[in-house]
Model the fold of this input.
Amino acid sequence: MTIDKPFNQFSKQEYLECIPNHQLYTEFNTLGLYRSLLENGNLSKDDKLEIRELSHYYFKKTFDFLQLKDPQTFFEVSTIGVELTKGDELNWWRIIRENQEKIIKEKKLNHRNFGSYAKHDCGIDYCPYNGLMIRQGSPLAETSMHFKKDRNKDVKMQKALRIKKESRDWKRRRNEEED
Ligand SMILES: [Zn+2]
Done:
């Protein structure tokens, strides 16, 4: 049996019928299922939480593996409907990082099947993803877009400092000229 439409167009009822019968389908994609919770416009927050719990009942192990395979989706699905402070977010990424190490150890992933992963290193000291293992080619590996907001803040601060220095220099020069 095949599923005749993408998960992200499912109604709540369709999820509830499909998930417990997942073995009947030939191309049931667990990652697609979890990801769809972030994209599906037919669901309320409570629907999403209910479907997530039902999914966890069947697929919790696969979901936990997403911490390594697709940490961004793991993070977003885990925090549906939760308001996070910056500290909460950092905490989440720390835990994900620790779990990644556990998964690597438990699965005894050797270098060969681990070659496509690399540690996130965008060069910013306080980046929450520092040290996180990221699959090559996945969004977190590609860019430091995730950091745009803070980077802008930095740019603004640097600009403010520069303007301050320039006006100081200018005042000093003027004073010297007057002398
Ligand atoms: Zn970064």
Remarks:
- The chain is about 60% helix and 5% strand.
